[in-house]
Amino acid sequence: MEGLDLHCQMLVEDYREAQPVLERMKTEVLAMLREALDRNGLVVTAVEARVKTEESLAGKLALKGAKYATLSDITDLVGARIITFYTDDVDRIASMAEQLFDIDWQNSVDKRKLHQLDSFGYNSLHYICRLPGYEYRFELQLRTTLQHAWAAINHDTGYKSGVEIPREYIRQLNRLAGMLEMADDEFSRIRTEINDYRRRVQQLVQNGKLDDVLLDGDTFRSYLQARPLEALNKRIAAINQAEIQEVPLIRYLRVLKALGCETLGDVSRLIRKYEDDAYRLARHQLGNTDLDIISSAVGLQNICIVCILSTGGGKIGLERLFDALNGHNSQNEALAALTYEQASNLPFMNK
Amino acid sequence: METTIQKNGNQVVALFKGRLDTAAAVTTAEEVKPLMEAANSEIILDCSQLEYISSSGLRIFLSIRKEAAAHGSKVIVRNISADIRQVFMMTGFISLFEIQ
C-alpha cells in the first residue's frame, strides 16, 4: 500500500474484508454464464472470471483513487469475460446477459461503436452488471477470439502501461486491428453461408432432388435425418425380434465414396438396388443365432458387403471395407474370408 | 465367467475370462461398474480369454462405452477372437467400437 493516500488505504482495507463476498459473486456469475450459454446452445472459446488482485487494485487507486468514494464505486472488482468465435455471437451473448443481470447502462461501454471512421483498435463490449443480493457490481467483457488475441498482444507491448512507444508501432498495431476486424467479419460471413448451404441441402433432400446434392459429411448427415435405412434395419431386427441401437454412420461416408457414390442420388440408388440382398445376408448370418440386439449400421454395412461382392470386389474388397470401418487389423482378413464364405451360397453371388 | 479390473495410471483394463452369456451378465454388469466411473481414462476391454459373448454381453459393452463417453473416457476392445469379431460384425457394432 506504499504510496497510497489514507483514503485509498481504507479502500484497500475494505477490499480485503470484501474478498470472500467477491469470490462468492465470481463463482455465482461464472456458473450463471455457463448455464445460460449451455441453455442457449452457444459455443464459445472461453468463459472466465476473476477477482481483482490487491496489487491491481492498488495500481488503479494510485492512478485515480480520488474518483472512488467507496469500494462499491469500483465496477471491476469482479470481472468476467466471454470469448466468442464469431462477432455475431457477441451480440447474442449480450442479449443473454441483459436477461441474466441488471445492466448499469450509464457505465457500460460498447467499444465497437466508439471508433472514428478512420481509426481501428480495441473492439469489445463491456457491461457493468448487478447481481441481486450483492452490493458490488461486476464487469462483463465480451469479445471475439481475434479481438482477444489483439488485446492480449497489445497489452504485452506495454502500449497501455504508460510507457511511451513510437507512433510507428502504434500505427502498425492498429493496422493489425483493422485486419483482424475484417477477418472477424469474414468468419461470420462464411458461417452464415455454410448455414445457408446446409438449409439449401436440407430443402433439396426434403424435395427428393438427391441427384443435385453432392455427397459430403454435411449432406450425408442431412440425408440420414430422413432415415432411409430404417425399413431395412427393421426387417433385419425382425429376424430375431431384436432391439436396434442407434449408432453414428459417418464412417460409411468414405466407404460409399469408394463404392462410387458421388451424390445422394447415387447413395439412394445403391440402397434400393441392394437392400433385399442385404436383408438376405443378415437373415443368413443372424438366423441361426439368438442375438437380439443390432446396431442401426447393420443395414448399410450389409448393403456395402453385397455391393462389393456383387461387383467382383471379393475378399480383398471386404477386407478393405472392414479396415475402413474398424481400422486396419490383421484379423480383418479372416473376417473377410468368413463373410465371403457365408455369402457364397446366397443368390446375389451366383447372378 | 470372471472379470478382473486393474488400474494402471490413466488406463483401466478389464480382463474377461470365460463365457459372457445371459446367465453371467448380471454378475459381470456388477463387476464392471468401476469402469463406468473412470473419468478421462482409456478403458481397455481385454477379450483375450473371452470365449463367447451373447446379446447381454454386447449390452454390457455398449453401457460401458456410453458411460465412458459421458465421463470423457475412451473404450478400446482388445484381442477378440475371430468368433467374437464376427458377432460384432453381424450385429453391425464393428464400426462403433475401436477394436484392436
Poorly predicted segments of chain A: none
Q: What is the architecture of chain B at the second tier of CATH?
A: 2-Layer Sandwich
Radius of gyration of chain A, in angstroms, nearest whole number: 31 Å
Number of helices of chain A: 12
**Could you please say which CATH topology of the largest domain in chain A applies here?**
Beta Polymerase, domain 2
Structural class of chain B: alpha/beta
Q: What is the third-level CATH name, the topology of chain B?
A: Transcription Regulator spoIIAA
> H/E order of the elements of chain A?
HEHEHEEEEHHHHEHHEHHH
Task: State the share of residues found in helices of chain A, binned by percent.
Answer: 55-70%
Envelope shape of chain A: elongated
Name the structural class of chain A.
alpha/beta
- What is the name of the CATH superfamily of the largest domain in chain A? Beta Polymerase, domain 2
Main beta sheet of chain A: strand number and arrangement?
A: 6 strands, mixed
CATH class of the largest domain in chain A: Alpha Beta
Share in helix of chain B: 40-55%
CA gyration radius of chain B, whole angstroms = 12 Å
Name the chain pair whose interface involves the most residues: A-B, 32 and 22 residues
What share of the residues of chain B does DSSP label as strand, in percent? 35-45%
Could you characterize what this model shows?
The complex is a heterodimer of chains A (351) and B (100). By secondary structure, chain A is α/β, with parallel strands linked by helices. Chain A has 2 domains: 6-153, Beta Polymerase, domain 2, CATH 3.30.460.10; 228-350, no CATH class. Helices cover 57% and strands 11% of the residues of chain A. In chain A, the strands form 2 sheets. In chain A, strands 1, 2, 3, 4, 5 and 6 form a 6-stranded mixed β-sheet that branches. A two-stranded parallel ribbon of chain A has the order 7-8. In chain A, strand 5 and strand 6 (137-144) form a beta hairpin. In chain A, helix 1 crosses helix 3, helix 4 (145-156) runs antiparallel to helix 5 (167-206) and helix 10 runs antiparallel to helix 11 (314-326). Chain A starts with 5 loop residues before the first helix and ends in an 8-residue tail after the last helix. The relative contact order of chain A is 0.07. Chain B is an alpha/beta fold and 100 residues long. Chain B has a single domain, classed as STAS domain (Transcription Regulator spoIIAA, 2-Layer Sandwich). Chain B is 40% helix and 36% strand. Chain B has 4 helices and 5 strands, in the order E-E-H-H-E-H-E-H-E. Chain B has helices at 22-31, 33-37, 55-70, 82-90; strands at 2-8, 11-20, 42-53, 74-78, 98-99. In chain B, helix 4 links the parallel strand 4 and strand 5 (98-99). The longest helix of chain B is centred in the middle third of the chain and has 16 residues, at 55-70. The A-B interface holds A 242, 245, 247-249, 251-252, 282, 285-286, 289-299, 301, 322, 325-327, 329, 331, 334-335, 338-339 and B 54-55, 58-59, 62, 80, 82, 85-87, 89-100.
